[in-house]
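Encoded backbone
================
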Amino acid sequence: MRDKEKKAPKMDYSNYVGIVRETNRPSGGIKTIQTVCVNAHITDKKKVLEIGCNTGFTSRNIHLLTGAEVIGIDLNKKSILAANETNALFEITRKVNFMEASVINLPFKNEEFDVVWLSNVLSFIKDKEVAVRECFRVLKDNGFLILVPIYYKKNPPKKLLKKVEEAINTKISVRTKEDWIKLIRGLEIPIEICFEKDFVYKNVKSKIQDYLSEVFNKEHINKMSEFERKTLFKEGKKFMELFNENLKYASFSIFIIQKRKFKEEVELFVSKPYKG
């Protein structure tokens, strides 16, 4: 069968990332990681767990910025393979490791970690309360849960939302920032939200083509057939344009949440940034 007659297999974004080995960064990228490392007091004496590590960018950079020991988990085998291969290039395999595991049933003992990085992966998990309770179970008292959720500042069109759901193979609940806070506080686990900062996304449509050209300039992709490369590039362009359109309606926040041994009374006189 000639290439033009072939039919490309349908794939979701997770499979695409696993094949292309795209460097999947958290919202805000390296600056978000640096902000968390400073404000969660991560040092080379700390042990960190990243949930949904993908190809390992966040885990690696937590270690590179702080020297901390980091374990990253994900359900995608190809992503874990790519993460471990990149680790070897950075020569950090002694203190950064990746493994297949589910947040619903973490293979770790109680209070094993100083920091648990949950980021936005909670958006893709059906049993959100179960997942968060597992994170708090493996988190030490006075340790920090890191949440970087994406939420909607205004409702997206239903047609757009359906396309995003198909791309990520997950049903999306249109949540606000307040919904995420309510979820965490509703668990009745003693916590303090020690750090909170809100952000909006830039429109990057004009940069997508150049970005993908860089992503696809990899040895394992250059070894693929022309049809495979073109098909993957087309899929990547479709995903990036779709996500860019979706993020016009969205914002994200960085939350650093401390697990406490005992519950204290809530704050009354809260504040907000002064804008003059």
